[in-house]
DNA-binding MarR family transcriptional regulator (Kitasatospora cineracea), 169 residues
Amino acid sequence: MSEQPARAPESTETTDTAEPEELAALLVGIQRLIRRQLRAGLAGPRLRGAQVELLRLVADTPGMRVSEAAEELFLAGNSVSTLVNQLVGQGLLRRESDPADGRAVLLHATGEAVDRLAAWRVRRAELVGEVVAELDPADRAALTAAVPALRAVASGLRARAAAEGSAER
């Protein structure tokens, strides 16, 4: 068996680039694994990521317009309209005429959608909670300590996307 040569320490520049890439890859991978494991036990038709995002948004902000949803999700209005049509067809969203503007519609999650999202959130929390509970206490503490920083990263990405979106308009 041959020994591996000792690796030279990485330069700060390499580490500065590698850490954000590794973080981004880990976050995407974790989300994908969670989704796969939770979908395995679901009854009913599978929803795509964008459909779930729209459902969550409308459930959390009932009565929003399609244009508001598009802006919040950083999607084109026609893309959100397509998602709305799909979700209405599945009985997960309903449209109401906007009393202030008869041409616009307000979106509302149906009871079935609210129940489905709630069940998903409970199952997701249980799954992640079980895996986190298996970590050693130092790793659990590190994850807890990282949550504010992860929120700041999400906020920074949202601000950049909003600035880019307003620059394109």
Q: What stands out?
A: The first strand starts at residue 64 and ends at 65.
